Amino acid sequence: MLEKPGKIPNKLTMKPKSSNTFRGVISSILMVCFCLLLISSFNKASIKKTDVPISDVITRANDENGNIEKITVIGNRLDITLKGQSEPSETSRKDASGTLYEQGLINHCANLKGDAFTACEKKYPIIEYKEDINIWGIIFDISITIIPIVVIVIFLSYMMRQAQSANNQSFGFGKSRARLYGPDKKKVTFKDVAGNESAKQDLTEIVDFLKNPKKYEKLGAKIPRGVLLAGDPGTGKTLMARAVAGEANVPFFSISGSEFAEMFVGVGASRVRDLFSKAKKNAPSIIFIDEIDAVAHKRDARGGAGREDEQTLNQILVEMDGFDNDSGVIVIAATNRVDMLDKALLRPGRFDRHVNVTLPERKDRLEILKVHFKGKPVEASVDLEALAKKTAGSSGADLANIANESAITAAREGHKAISNADLTEAFERIAIGPERKSKVMNEKERKITAYHEAGHAIVGHVLPDSDPVHKVTIIPRGATGGVTWFLPPEDRSYKNIYELKDILARAMGGRIAEKIVFGTDAITTGASSDLKNVAELSKTMVIGEGMGKKLRNLVFPSEATGYYTITTEKPYSEKTAELIDLEIKALSDEASMRAEEILKTNRKILDRLATELLKQETLEEKELAPILKSATLPASAKLH
Ligand code: ADP
Ligand code: MG
Ligand code: ZN
Hints:
Blueprint: H1 11-43, E1 50-51, H2 54-62, E2 68-74, E3 77-82, E4 90-93, H3 114-123, E5 126-130, H4 135-166, E6 179-180, H5 197-211, H6 213-218, E7 226-230, H7 237-248, E8 252-256, H8 257-260, H9 267-281, E9 285-290, H10 307-321, E10 329-335, E11 353-356, H11 362-373, H12 384-390, H13 396-413, H14 420-431, H15 443-462, E12 469-473, E13 483-486, H16 497-518, H17 528-544, E14 557-558, E15 562-563, H18 574-601, H19 603-616, E16 618-620, H20 621-628
Parallel strand pairs: 1-4, 2-5, 7-10, 7-11, 8-9, 9-10
Antiparallel strand pairs: 2-3, 3-4, 6-8, 12-13, 12-16, 14-15
């Protein structure tokens, strides 16, 4: 979002530039006309010629005492030069069908030889053939050669101007498009960045380098040149970099790697040069290269078309290598994909400091929510903690989005302050889509949905390694008919195989409940996304996590995609491919079997939950508890 303003073309400078182009077109056209006039005037004979009939010309030419010196044949036109003159003074036309001889001219000297021939020739006119010069032909030829050149020249100059006006007015072509967030701009500090304490701590050091370089130089310490911020999208990397500049109170030059990609050959490198020279002039300062993976991906991974990127990347490296210890410029780069970066970038003296920006944990999520609800009127009862609990896996940007969406919801509902209901609506809307109360479902559909969701809830509830059920609803939302919400597990880095298998089984719970209650032939399309999730998760488990039975601890990774999928190039034999298919099927069969065992054992509870859902539409944790309390896990569904 911060990057947007610089991309707006400058309207004021566009206008005169486009009229310049117009003037260019006009003057080129005038030039062409002038040339044509010049050429045609050369062709017009300077002496006026008298028209004479062809018979008269033939008669005089056959007469050895005739007054004709030379006949110039140009196509069908004859220009006649009289004896003693140097320019033709008469003109005539022969028949288009034949030569002069066929029209009566006699070749008097044809049979003579030597001196006799020379003497004979002197008496009769010289017949000279000239190429037919067609003035329109010439114009046409010239036009063909000149017009494309003119068009190309106009086009090129237009392109150059376009590129120029896309730049900022003050930065010329090939200059850096970097924007300056000087100390006068709205300052971001570490206070605006919630959570991520360890990253902030690492960066506090950088702030200190910028503020007190002498302190480090005195002790002979090398000040770091480059800091790489790595983390998932929306975790606040851009925000963090701006906060460093704000804390150190130094100018901040920011450019995004993806902007280099739009440039002409060689422009990327020159922009880098310009960016660095600007930053050095304003030292101490920060250069921020966002999304650096766009130019600095592994050289072998970029495949062919990356010469421009390579030049840009090399220029960045050259500039960083050229830093003096006291240059006072620190380069901060951000990326979502450290694994994709060219190793050359990570060498000492370049981006050798790595700061990981992670997805926020529960208490950090609460802090981020507090930052984004600050200044928004909220009801006293609003429970941000509960929201923080529900949003495991969400990034800072997601949370900022929920905060904004709940303010919008409150405004739409005509509330004076944001309520818990607005919060929940905003969260669910962002997670799944808007509620669709108006969607009519007939009684049969509602009943199927109720059983389907009850199936998910019961299976999820009794399985020992599944997350607790938090809410069940049969109010349609987004594309779904109903939703069973499980409270996400508190942030742990790993999931074990039992948890994953429980996720598969509870996902199957919906379809299996439909099957048990309405019969195998009555199953609906309502389970398609559940089944897709099962297919994807079981595939990941087998191919990516080595969780198959026979393929235990074997994975099939690929650098480009993370893992080979069934459809891309396979680094395994046909036999193994077959085995993979079987393993995937075994996982989903096992999940179906477990769901079925659980729901058959708890059939009465299934009926009761479904009935209650049909009555109330939405059941929260405390209403679910008494119904689910007596549900049991049959031994046949146990894994351990
Ligand atoms: P990234 O660059 O990692 O993709 P951004 O810095 O662009 O993420 O974050 C997008 C937005 O999300 C920020 O403008 C901010 O509103 C919000 N945000 C992200 N992380 C945090 C955080 N830790 N504290 C407060 N707001 C955050
Ligand atoms: Mg960013
Ligand atoms: Zn479902």
